[in-house]
Amino acid sequence: MFLLLALLPVAVLLLFIYFVDKYRHEPWPEILKAVAAGVISAFIVLTVVLSLNLQFQPSAKGAIADAFINAAIPEELAKFLMLWLILRSNKHFDEYFDGIVYAVCVSMGFAALENILYLFGEEDVLAVGIARGVISVPAHFLFAVAMGYYYSIVHFSHNITRNLRLFYAACVLVVPILLHGLFDAFLMVASYSAEQMNFTFAGICAVAFVAVCIFMVVFAFKKCKRMLDADKQYFDMLAKQQFNQYWQMSQQRN
To answer: Is the pLDDT of residue 187 over 80?
Structure first.
């Protein structure tokens, strides 16, 4: 039961991103390799966080520090490392949208193991499983879209200035870390404030959390559309070149 709750949202989002990539699907062995790399990234984070054992005071500031230092920064760094390792010599990484596909696969591998660990031994498996399937797993998906988008920009954009290229390279990590950190921070501060009976501040943080979620959905939709449009332009140009070559050859034969 808990395995189904843990893995079903991951599988749904993997299939979703696979079919959104409508021009040329990535091979399933490469997709599964990326998911496995994501699982490895979760083990890396677990090992690092447990070994450092950084504790923060039970306060709003402590919750923010916990959100960034124990979650957003190590998790996105580990996922980026795995993404770089699987793409540095991947011959199938030949479209703009591919960066998003592989980043999502890595992130879903991470989310799968994280979900299993959260639900294992949980008393109210159904409630926690549904909550994580609706909130946490899609959040990892959205963080990955940001990482994959900027990764593809850096990889394929050869005509931009050096400074702009460095900016996009920084965004590969900075943007998902910020999104992840704000997502966790607002949620954790809202929870802490509610426990302290500070319901006004808890409500403000809850509204901010919803705003961050809406922003991430809109951001991800726009970035996915931009990458798909870039791929469409490329394939249209390729088809036009092939048609012109065929036309020239047919004219020469005649």
So the answer is: yes
